[in-house]
Amino acid sequence: MRFYYEEKMPLRILDEGEFWKLQESEHTIVLRELVPNLEPPFVEALQAWEQALARTQGLFVRFIELVVRLGHRVGPELNRPIRELVQFALGQSRTFIALLNQLGSESEAMMSNPTAMVVLQHIRRESEYFIGIALAVLSGEESTQCEHGS
Asked: Least packed by Cβ within 10 Å: which of 24, 64, 143, 149?
């Protein structure tokens, strides 16, 4: 992600968060469909994750709508909850990756399906990509705040 969006940066990270949470939510469906004999505990975990990720995506959408209504002006009072949402989404993606790792190492149905294993690795890389974006944005904000004396 490029960092020259300046005043539109909060909207840009919200857009990224909304996109990647949608992707992660859809990935839970892809895995369940790709491995029809997936063990019930993993099916249930993926179903729960689908809902949790969709809720987080919804939060990103609500913030996007708010920022647009405010004419893209994001002050500290709004920047703080956006930052908290990004931090939450980052932690959520890390935990989702832990489930993906568990699927790849403990699910016989997954391990016996070479195509599913390739897809699983791809899904993990995509979630790791979002983590990288979130970390870059959060660390970029910290350095900007330090420069401005905030």
From this structure: 149
